[in-house]
Amino acid sequence: MICDKELTFPLWEESDNDSCVVDYCLRIMDAARKESCGMYVLCREGTSQAYEIIKDISQGCGKSDDIELLYELLEQIIKHEKCKVANSASTKCLELLSTYEDEWIKHIRRKICTNMVCKEMYTLYIDPNLCDGCGLCINSCAFNAILGGEQMIHVIDTELCNKALECMKICPKQAIKKAGNIKPRIPKEPVPVGSFKGSSDEPDGHVTRRRRRRK
Ligand code: SF4
């Protein structure tokens, strides 16, 4: 029996240039595991397994053999699965894995998400040369992750930051930015506006080391 349930998801081809292929596949495989009919092993277990592998990769916990494993799993689902939901999601992920394999490998080996979409692969910081101390960002943060005061250059506590990105939307100076492995020079705590010497474009020499995947 063939399950005719359809899965609709936004087309990758219509995504903007700031999208991440791993994040996109994570979202469609998440929808597939929730929407699949569940009648068959591969649509039930296969989509969940594929989702977990992609999630690990997007969170910087991917292993070197995850790509190969994902190829095998997706091919198995496509070959044997009678569930259209599992099939269409797997076909799309397989196509994007093959077309953008370099980006997937970058996520696994270097913990880099080119467009800084995958949350574990970037941090937020406030550009001290742009912040004018207006304070709007503090109230937008539900996690109390922004430190500052009147006429002070504000600073983000990356330990508390949940990357909800509300502060980025509200900042009138576009001072809140993303940084990958190379961190810019910024004050460690709030300092008066205009007092910070140096360019935030210069790296501070600190390269984040990501935790290895738990065994
Ligand atoms: S980061 Fe933006 S919103 Fe926050 S105090 Fe500075 S200028 Fe204002």
Task: Walk me through what this model shows.
Helices cover 39% and strands 11% of the residues. It has seven helices and eight strands, in the order H-H-H-H-H-E-H-E-E-E-H-E-E-E-E. With 215 residues, it is of the alpha+beta class. A two-stranded antiparallel ribbon has the order 1-5. The protein has a two-stranded antiparallel sheet with strand order 2-4. A two-stranded antiparallel sheet has the order 3-7. The protein has helices spanning 21-35, 41-58, 66-80, 84-99, 101-109, 136-140, 166-170, and strands at 123-126, 146-147, 152-153, 155-156, 176-179, 182-184, 191-192, 203-207. The chain has two domains: 12-109, NADH-ubiquinone oxidoreductase 51kDa subunit, iron-sulphur binding domain (de novo design (two linked rop proteins), Up-down Bundle); 122-207, Alpha-Beta Plaits, CATH 3.30.70.20. Mean pLDDT is 89; it is low at 205-215. The structure holds iron/sulfur cluster.
SSE order and pairing:
Elements: H1 21-35, H2 41-58, H3 66-80, H4 84-99, H5 101-109, E1 123-126, H6 136-140, E2 146-147, E3 152-153, E4 155-156, H7 166-170, E5 176-179, E6 182-184, E7 191-192, E8 203-207
Antiparallel strand pairs: 1-5, 2-4, 3-7, 6-8
Helix pairs in contact: 1-2, 1-4, 2-3, 2-4, 3-4
Residues 126, 131-137, 148, 154, 171, 173, 175-176 line the site of iron/sulfur cluster.
